[in-house]
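Tokens as discussed.
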């Protein structure tokens, strides 16, 4: 058995700065770049989560602290329930909840404004292998969404899981140009919401 050698230790002195994490997706891309260059892979970046009972102000603080504009909403037993965005916290959903239920903003919780799991759009992990940034933009525009999720099929080692997040704002940052996405209502609830916003 080899003997272990201690590392050379030293005392710290003034003038040492903290290292800062580099954004994982900071390199510029173009429309023909591989899609994975603009996708946030949840096996490399920890997903930030909140609970449906979290007050909206606390959820906003979580977003600010994490430098994100979206949180996964996880219920009891770590079951994914949906997601909440910064737009949800201050948009029409919270205004309607205040108006319809006679509540104050301080009384609202994430569950009042989040997008439930069955209203979220996702693409298959395997389909991203040959996709480009341009393909992702076309998909976001087609769906009228700012975020899209990536689901990976079950394997012998892992269950079916949420593998990655695609974000319009992330693509814009790396592409260096704004991307216009027009919301598309596809369910009765979304049509009703669009009529309220008009």
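Sequence:
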């Amino acid at each position: 058995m080899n003997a272990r050698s201690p590392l050379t230790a030293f005392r710290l002195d003034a003038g040492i700065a903290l290292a800062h994490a580099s954004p994982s997706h900071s390199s510029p891309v173009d429309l023909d770049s591989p899609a994975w260059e603009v996708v946030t892979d949840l096996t490399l970046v920890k997903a930030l989560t909140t609970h449906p009972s979290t007050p909206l102000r606390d959820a906003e603080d979580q977003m600010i602290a994490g430098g994100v504009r979206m949180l996964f909403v996880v219920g009891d037993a770590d079951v994914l329930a949906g997601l909440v965005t910064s737009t949800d916290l201050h948009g029409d959903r919270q205004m309607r909840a205040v108006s319809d239920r006679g509540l104050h903003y301080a009384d609202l919780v994430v569950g009042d404004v989040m997008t439930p799991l069955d209203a979220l759009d996702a693409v298959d992990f395997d389909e991203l292998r040959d996709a480009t940034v341009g393909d992702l933009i076309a998909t976001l525009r087609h769906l009228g969404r700012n975020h899209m999720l990536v689901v990976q099929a079950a394997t012998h080692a892992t269950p079916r899981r949420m593998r990655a997040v695609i974000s319009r704002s992330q693509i814009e940052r790396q592409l260096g140009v704004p991307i216009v996405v027009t919301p598309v209502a596809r369910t009765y609830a979304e049509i009703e919401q669009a009529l309220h916003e008009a």
